[in-house]
Batch of 2 targets.
Target 1
Amino acid sequence: MPTSETAGRRDLVLLALMCTMMLAAMDTTIVSTAIPQIVEDLGGFALFAWVFSAYLLAQTVTIPIYGKLSDLFGRKPVLITGTLIFLLGSTASALSWNMVSLIVFRLIQGLGAGGVMATVATLAGDLYSVRERAAVQGWLSSVWGIAALTGPLLGGAFAQYLSWHWIFLVNLPVGALALALIWTNLHEEFEPDHPNIDYAGAALVMATAGTLMFALLQGGQAWAWGAWQNLSLMALAGGLLIVTVLVERRAPAPIVPGWLWRRPVLAGSNLAMAGMGLIMIAPSSYLPTFLQSVSGLGAIGAGLVLACMSIGWPAASALSGRLYLRLGFRDTALIGAGLILAASLGFVLVPAPRPVWTVVLDQIALGAGFGLLSTPLMVGTQSVVGWKQRGVVTSANMFARYLGQSLGAALYGAIFNATIARQIADAPAAIAGAMPARVDAVIGVLRDPAAPAAAQDWLRGAIAAATGHLFVGMAGFAVLVLAALLIAPRRFPEHDPGAELPGAAAEAALAAADRTAS
């Protein structure tokens, strides 16, 4: 049932949601700056990429599970459980004795982060009206901007002046504050409806998503994309997907209901969010390399330019409410996707050498596009269902975005490396001998004072060309996002049949509506 809070309590709950969101938002940025010190202390350089991958894998595959559980048992217990698991993983990570143990404890952190990410946005939909949610999403989005600025600074300071262990221990006071605020101020009017838990569906969803993400994370890294290992994993993921669909179709209360994809309003929105995740990973992963290697910025300067994306995002999220109340959710999202397309093309069309200020403006515009795309789709999809389906709908929206990010990381890595390899192969004969034998040795040549200046200039041009190709790819995917949005109706329905019915009755009403629509 919807929560009933006074305005003062809602503000305290929003503060708690921002604190819990900060735990997940700051995690990657604060850890990445301390990786050299972690590797120096624990060893295991060949495994350090899994410090991030294990976390991302666990977080992504559990989001749909937590979303369904929050519909069955309420948001409060799920959010508290997710936060406690995250803090347990943080404490254990600080006590790691080697790289393998750190990876295991980071996976536990990710299991908790999935609960945080799935429940925070759902609670915002419970507590605030459609008119208010844009401003609330702006506040929640601002957390990511704060994390983008403070994470690297805190991580660097802890690693340099204290110890890398503090990058995990700093989560404890923030998490404790969030738990205290949630426990004392969030009161749900909720009575469990003898829930029928879909254990088989939960296991299959995790297995399917986990296998697919593992293949995406390892492809092009641990083995070639066409290697038998990768092909086997993809085939296994496909087989598990078929089994999952068959099992979920027969489940009384499936973890991933079929109506999530049979309804145009939800299918179009989820596909668009997957496209957004696919787009946003490119600048986050590769723009700092371009700025440091081609534009000559330092690490901090490159990080600040990248963080400009987090300026446009919360501002556009907060302002999107005025647009979607006037134009509708889909048309507002179309404006956001159009702005993403324009920003992607804008980077490519600025002639080299690109002034840094043009990249700053481009990042602000890109962030504004993400805000105008993501917030209307999140608020819009939450508004077409009742309380008992809101957790599933919200988690599906977020799961699509994170799955898109994983797919994007794989695709952009292939594009970036292939472009640089081609540029190295096409180097003039005069500098061919100075070219690195492998793509991952390019940065070493750029930092080698003994390397010929002409060879370094050629490699900078290669990085610039590769980055340009990524933004062209982003523009292409933005076009696909526009097409996905056209699947959804121009005006989202206000609510679905059976939205306020309990448990199985709601599922039956939704299924009947699906049959009528088809």
Note: The two ends are 30 Å apart (CA to CA).
Target 2
Amino acid sequence: MLRVANLKISLDGGPEAPLEAAVKKLKIRRDQVSAWHVSKKSVDARDKGDVHFVMAVDLAVAGEDALLRSLKAGVASKVPPVAALPAVRAAYKGLRPVVAGFGPGGLFAALALARGGMRPIVLERGQRVDERKRSTDRFALTGELDPESNIQFGEGGAGAFSDGKLTTGIKDPRCRLVLKELADHGAPEEILSLAHPHVGTDRLPGVVAAIRQEIIELGGEVRFSSRLTDLRVKGGALCAVGYEDAQGKQEIAADDLILAIGHSAADTQQMLFNAGVQMIQKPFSVGARIEHPQAAVNRSQYGRFASHPALGAAEYHLSAHLPDGRGAYTFCMCPGGTVVPAASRRGGVCVNGMSAFARDGENANAALLIDVRTEDFGDDHPLAGYALQRAWEQRAFRAGGENYFAPVQLAGDLLSGLETKRLGSVRPTYRPGVTCADFRAVLPEFAYEGMRAAIRIFDRQLKGFAMPDAVLTAVESRSSCPVRLLRDQRYESSIAGLYPCGEGAGYAGGIMSAAVDGLRVAEALMKKYALLEE
């Protein structure tokens, strides 16, 4: 097939408009095309008087090689081969590998291993994704705390709040494979073509469950409510994995363990440190969620086209260098979304954001974050960043009233250096509730002042960002992991057979990059046993 990119398509164009534009650019007849589809779609809103779509179209055309040779350079190109998990060339006969964690990294590592005939055992400290969602929804709506649920109060579980944003800056061909697998397991087909693909909080649990079911059908096993507690090492190499479930302490003989524990498993990181796994401090970020009316964001981004039915809820991504040299940026922007609880420790408040697939909520929200440098840690211990996170989350807990309400401050009050006494026109979406506060009691000074400077700068990039009634909800402290587990070119740690993976290992920063890292690690493990070509 041929790919024709950079096609300007009117918002009012009909379903055949992309094909018509591609045919015109190729200078061929419509009847020469036997099949076609849109492979990339984005919105170009740089000129508010001419908002339009930019698309790439893939076409099956008779005699495409000759046609391609006749075209000027850049008009069209060959469509790259469809990505696929690598085929194994031998049967695996060793001990079953263990995967600790079932977020994006662990999920895709386990899928690849299962298809390679290695029958992985997955240890997931949380509940099944459907049960986890019910627990999360109950807490978000009512504030009812489940004392048995480690989604709320284990050391892990923050990944349960993901809404399936699949945007990434990495340029790895495995990204296409991840999108295809998600779509094959029930995600919306449009993720294969959108420039900013999104599954949605409401649809993601079903997709995860479908992938889990395939892993099980291929001989894998997923053990829920199973917390990794110990490593057995002999001669510098892994020989067994200890974990704890409802029945007590358990052990699995294993030569290989993929660590996909996520960025919030501080207790597991402590165990790994005690076991001698080499790790170093890693910078991360801290800040709050900021909420604006989605209609205001639409107007700012799309101008007079804001209400056009062809356009969905508008997005934004903003960044700046602050006067003190730190970076400020928005992260995980959720159009038409909600701010949700992401606490994983008792006595702490931590927030995140999510959107349903429809993105039809009243507010837009995004993390407004300031860089945290390793010199801010105040200690050279590799896990010192977790202590900072815990301290800020405890401050937020106290400022919120010690009842798991989140502290909020209006943007106008923050800019004026005033404590918020009452809310304005923007209704906060965080449940179970919020408490008006002064963020000087929650955030470190560099983050407080950094957010004030960033809001003013971002208002010049996105008109209305400094809206006085915009609501800031604290504290967002889990955007990335504050530690990196060292690994070599074979993806192994300082303990042979131990494979750090994904966000919790410090090698990813979102769903896509974590999933891709899971595939890389699984491939490395299969190459170790000569199941794949080097």
Note: Residues 138-157 have pLDDT under 50 and may be disordered.
